[in-house]
């Protein structure tokens, strides 16, 4: 008696999904092993489960790095360099944001103002007024809370 076909879609129940993942992982590892033995193929299989668990299969006498390096030499694609360049670009963007924030902090402290245009100075002044208004609002709410405590809870020590 054969098995019935199942609909290929995400299993909603997390326990059933994890059990299915575990069984199918073992099956695909077995297939990868059979492929490497029968065909003398270099196989590297990397899997990351939904629970962020890492599983890896590599055929005997090889490593995932060796397989990736061989893939790169055959295709002429340098995966490591591409990834490195993306990380460098991201780092440059983060450094730019960091420098802008540091400049803004210095300007709010009254430093580095000589290079600002009249419009930038005006915007800085408006931002400072908005910040002062927020600080005053917070101060009033804290003072009101302290007054409330003194009136309704007079036995509390300051």
Automatic annotation (TrEMBL):
GO molecular function: DNA-binding transcription factor activity; protein dimerization activity; RNA polymerase II transcription regulatory region sequence-specific DNA binding
Domain MADS-box: 1-61
Alphabetized SMART domains for the sequence: MADS
TM ranges: none
CDD domains, sorted: MADS_MEF2_like (cd00265)
Major location category of this protein: nucleus
Domain K-box: 84-158
Alphabetical list of InterPro entries matching this protein: MADS-box/MEF2_TF (IPR050142), MEF2-like_N (IPR033896), TF_Kbox (IPR002487), TF_MADSbox (IPR002100), TF_MADSbox_sf (IPR036879)
Compartments, record wording: Nucleus
Keyword set includes Iron: no
Protein name, as recorded: OLC1v1010966C1
Originating species: Oldenlandia corymbosa var. corymbosa
